[in-house]
Amino acid sequence: MNKKNNLLLSMCFLLTLSFTVFSQDKSADQNDAKQLREIYQEFDRAGKILDLTVIEKYLDENYELEDGNTKLNRTQTIEQVKQFSSMVEKIEVLSSKIEKISVSDGRYSLEISSVMKGTLKAPDGATVPFESYTKSTDIWIKTENGWREISQIGREKKFSINGREITK
To answer: Of 43, 162, 50, which is closest to residue 114 (Cα–Cα)?
Structure first.
């Protein structure tokens, strides 16, 4: 091949590489990633003591939860969390891990895995152990008033009561 063809091929390769790089999600900068990790640590601490104000503080007014065929808005999500919390006697373990953060068009997409273990009050008054394992994609935006979660998409869910799996 002559020099002209080599140059042309090199330029095409670089142009293709440029489009590939610029069309992919970008990684969050370290400061944003640190802030988001701190929020999830705050969620975990608050969840252990059933402090729901932390959840309410970060959910955007247009928040939407999508879990399978179910879609809930902010109000419905908070109500569902309150109902579950009213059945909880104690949360012994609550741990959320950010597996990946990517950014596209000002939206921060977080791949989250969470584990929760504790005890529930059964209708007959007995205390029974429960375990929950979830994976989700949480979408956040950074506003002038701070971070807001705008949506969550459930990816995987396992829930067991007294060792018996209820949901997959």
So the answer is: 43
Contact in structure between 145 and 59 (CB atoms under 8 Å): no
Q: Which of 102, 85, 104, 86 lies closest to 94 in space, CA to CA? A: 85
Q: Whole-model pTM?
A: 0.80
> Per residue in 75-89, pLDDT tens?
999 999 999 999 999
Helices (H), the chain: 3-23, 30-48, 53-58, 74-87
Pairing of strands 146-161, 164-167: antiparallel
CA angle in degrees (0–180, nearest 5) for 118-123-126: 55
Average pLDDT of every residue of the chain: 86
